[in-house]
Amino acid sequence: MSNSLDGSIQKKIAAAIQKAIVGGENQIGIIRLTETEAAKTGYQYKEKILGKGEDIRMYGNPMSNGHIYFDKVTGH
């Protein structure tokens, strides 16, 4: 899915995934959505990057093996 994005944005996405779960504000990484956001979006997690591409959000849910599968990309 991210292969269609600019190379520098792909690197940021990979870095956010490696960073894993973060608190939120001014951090790159994976953010667990609040119950309200999860109910609204149908997803439990979103990936956040800063700088170029920061308007891109990837949403995902955990799979049975515990990995998070991001299958929705939106503009912020």
Topology:
Blueprint: H1 7-19, E1 29-32, H2 35-41, E2 45-48, E3 56-62, E4 68-75
Antiparallel strand pairs: 1-2, 2-3, 3-4
Structural description of this entry:
The structure is a single chain. The protein is of the alpha+beta class. It has one domain. The protein is built from two helices and four strands, in the order H-E-H-E-E-E. The protein has helices at 7-19, 35-41; strands spanning 29-32, 45-48, 56-62, 68-75. Strands 1-2-3-4 form a four-stranded antiparallel beta sheet. Strand 3 and strand 4 (68-75) form a beta hairpin. The model has no long low-confidence stretch (mean pLDDT 83).
Structural domain tally: 1
- What's the end-to-end separation, in Å? 17 Å
Shape annotation: globular
Structural class: alpha+beta
What order do the strands of the largest sheet run in, or round the barrel if closed? 1-2-3-4
Find the count of extended strands (DSSP E, 2+ residues): 4
Our estimate of the beta-strand percent is: 25-35%
Helical coverage, percent range = 25-40%
Mean pLDDT: 83
Number of helices: 2
